[in-house]
């Protein structure tokens, strides 16, 4: 359902800004009022890398009033395959400063560069005053800090992640408008459930997919600011770039998230009956249970758990009810498997995941 707009509009657009954003102003459902809300918005963008780059460009082009861009990193040549904010001559310079330069070439958007690392200690202070936050960071520790701060402040968190050829996009919000159930990061990843996640430096990432996901993140932000469309709150959009598939996975509040976040009241965030965190099991639990490997064909070609059945993630998400439980889901690092298990459980199928994925299973066999 559409949510009320996040911000009050500016009184009027300048003649120059009205001309620059003319295609928004005449857009039915957005119009002059929506564009004035965009002009009033303050969006915090965490990371000016593969996801933050298209986000900053899209929101500056859209005419967002203020962008706070948080990134303590500098531009490297290997970034340029996907981080379209930056140029070759920017190598060695601050990514946050590069965002200021790129946005200024598009619009009068005010970009506030923050050249420091976001941590649990400073996150709430850095995000204070923003109407919403977009997380394009690449460390899960940072993502948890951003999520905790957004939850504390009660502002929407537009969230996306990309690895190799796969991506996910969703919206978290601890205090959404009346009639909408709160959903936070801990509902997707309960505390302590995520181990080491390989970076794009380890496994690579498709640059064009970063642009697609960054555009989706910017779109979700615009929808929330202007009060149009249906935000992805309570839904995870899973993208399989190689198969050109996009699948929605339902996401609901869990008991684990509620216990990890005492600031959320029971009245504001009731956990649906029978909902529990996804169970992660070790290799010893695989002997008498069907194992489903949701990796792609090129990944399973390097080896599978003996007796496992191969069902690519996109195929499983397209028809989760076709699977008979109980099953244990495995992927490379236990990231994709969690989405698969959530979809299966929503379809009434008993499902758990292999903790640490194939990387953990391979390591256990090497030390056996």
From TrEMBL:
Residues 285-366 form the Rhodanese domain. GO terms for molecular function: nucleotidyltransferase activity; sulfotransferase activity; thiosulfate-cyanide sulfurtransferase activity; ubiquitin-like modifier activating enzyme activity. GO terms for cellular component: cytosol. SMART domains: RHOD. It holds the Pfam family Rhodanese. This is Rhodanese domain-containing protein. It comes from Microbacterium ulmi. The lineage of its organism: Bacteria, Bacillati, Actinomycetota, Actinomycetes, Micrococcales.
